[in-house]
Sequence to fold (154 residues):
Amino acid sequence: MKVVVSHIDGMQFEAKTEKSSFIIDCPQISPIEYFLSGIITCSATDVVMIPKNQGKTVTNLSIEGDVVRNEDFPRKFNTLHLTYSFDSDADDMMAARFVMASLETYCSTINTIRDSVKISYTIIHNGKTIRENEMMISGGGSKIDMGEIESCPQ
Fold:
């Protein structure tokens, strides 16, 4: 994977990936907000695709990320809490597995930061809280085999 970021003017930059490009407009959206958005979007794609591959459907998906950062520089993430809210035709146990598969196995961005950031999550499924303030199972990434899934190309 390769990304090239070029200065446009003022605090605007263009990021060119192998597939596309987009404008980063600081301070409208800060790089750390883009970073957090990327983390959340990575997991969101899993939570949509994993059920699809199992003949299930997820609707009304919303994931909120709440980060606590260092007060001093570098202002890295200390904790990240993700609140997953969605409806599906799966039972609560299967719905929890969709999220856990993303967190523990498939989401590359979360697995990139997991050794340095304390990550927790809450799951609201079909309007009911089924997991609250749970911690990720492992700190170094687990090798849980969830089978092949369709996902965004890496």
Observations:
- Helices lie at 31-53, 92-106, 108-113.
- Strands lie at 4-9, 12-16, 21-25, 58-69, 77-88, 118-125, 128-135.
- The longest helix spans residues 31-53.
